[in-house]
């Protein structure tokens, strides 16, 4: 296994005198040197606003910004560049679809199908529509190992179902959902599918054409890129008909006090000055991912997942929540008689970063009847040595609480 840590300047520092062991990539990934450099280079030498200058700096910035869109399109195998919309992140992308899709066609008693394993970002925006449009949410239950029951899912459809909004991979359980089958089932009922790809895009190859999803959404900051940048992929057929989410500069064609006409895709959904530096930094992140290869990244993290899961399963004081056979590199667990926050704090004092809490998935915590979980999540920079250090530190936690 190649060690990619050297690509990430953050690992040069010590935490509490220990080497930093970063096991919270599902939350946000660290940034390789090339991404940091691209942002620095842009601000030092290339900054101008995009889509409005007729001078060289602005034209170059516009070209760099639009090249990233092209790159994203190729990366996820979308059909058209105009199907890639830049947003602030997964949360904003979901809000965009929720509000715009609702205005296009939701009526009282219409139904949206979600699952029990969704992140709050893929629950709350839909719930907000309940009050505004009088719609209903239907929730797919999950099994004890953390899998979706396809039969129950199928039974949730009715004549009033208007959309399925489902995560590609769970940020808590790690489960990779059987999307292809789920999308086929939804399409057989003439229902479009939105996929929250926040936890899948950075960790495995994604092909929106092969999946045939209607919307696919993710954040740059979980994929080695900067914060404040996200992607909404949508099929032309939907995006063309959906009204703008935000309005103002850049998204218009013609404005008078009597009326405004909107710019074509993708600009109709990109009001105001975008996060140009972030988008350019994201391009560098995509180049970094491409250089390693998404298949290699998946294999690397699968190795770590297997290693850690096996070692934790040997411990009688540990219970892993989420043991589905198909997972991304996420392992959440409870430790007998020790609160997750205590585990996280003691690990932190040994230079280890894990997440502890409800992971923005309170309904899932209720499903498994746990107040909080400790979560280890992997990125490309993690190694077997990180797992060794983590397991040794866990022994310290046990000793302190004995
Ligand atoms: N969806 C999932 C599955 C997530 O894990 C997260 C973040 O952890 C989000 C959505 C929200 O992403 P962001 O905070 O980048 O908008």
Shape: globular
Number of domains: 2
Distance from first to last alpha carbon: 36 Å
Overall strand count:
17
Helix content: 25-40%
- Provide the structure class: alpha/beta
Write out the distinct hetero groups bound to the structure. pyridoxal-5'-phosphate
What percent of residues are in strands? 15-25%
**Name of the CATH superfamily of the largest domain:** Type I PLP-dependent aspartate aminotransferase-like (Major domain)
Describe the 3D structure.
This protein is an alpha/beta fold. It has 2 domains: 5-30 and 293-400, Aspartate Aminotransferase, domain 1; 35-291, 3-Layer(aba) Sandwich (Aspartate Aminotransferase, domain 2), CATH 3.40.640.10. It contains 13 helices and 17 strands. The chain has helices at 33-46, 56-75, 90-105, 124-133, 150-155, 179-188, 208-211, 236-239, 276-292, 294-313, 340-348, 362-367, 384-401; strands spanning 14-15, 18-19, 21-22, 84-87, 111-115, 136-140, 161-167, 193-196, 215-219, 230-234, 252-255, 260-262, 318-321, 330-335, 352-353, 355-357, 373-377. The strands form 5 sheets. Strands 4-10-9-8-7-5-6 form a 7-stranded mixed β-sheet, with helices on both faces. Strands 13-14-17-16 form a 4-stranded antiparallel β-sheet, with helices on one face. Helix 2 packs across helix 9 (276-292), helix 3 runs parallel beside helix 4 (124-133) and helix 11 crosses helix 13. The mean pLDDT is 97.
